[in-house]
Specification:
Structural class: mainly alpha
Low-confidence stretches: none
Distance between the termini: 20 Å
Shape: elongated
Strand content: under 5%
Mean pLDDT: 83
Length: 60
């Protein structure tokens, strides 16, 4: 497996897990409920997609 594919996978995994952690924190500790959890999760997923897009643009 090429190194850049492995790095990309770890970046996406890290941002998704970070989004889950942020969502859990907003839901449980800050009292935002499901809306806070979904916001944190979406933030993590979109930051992962941003990393993928940036990697693709850099390679071209």
């Amino acid at each position: 497996m090429p190194l850049h594919v492995a790095q990309l996978g770890f970046n996406v995994l890290g941002t998704t897990l970070g989004g889950l952690l942020l969502g859990w924190f907003l839901q449980e500790k800050m009292g935002f409920g499901l809306v806070g959890f979904l916001f944190g999760l979406l933030l993590g997923v979109f930051s992962g997609l941003w990393i993928i897009l940036k990697q693709i643009l850099v390679q071209k």
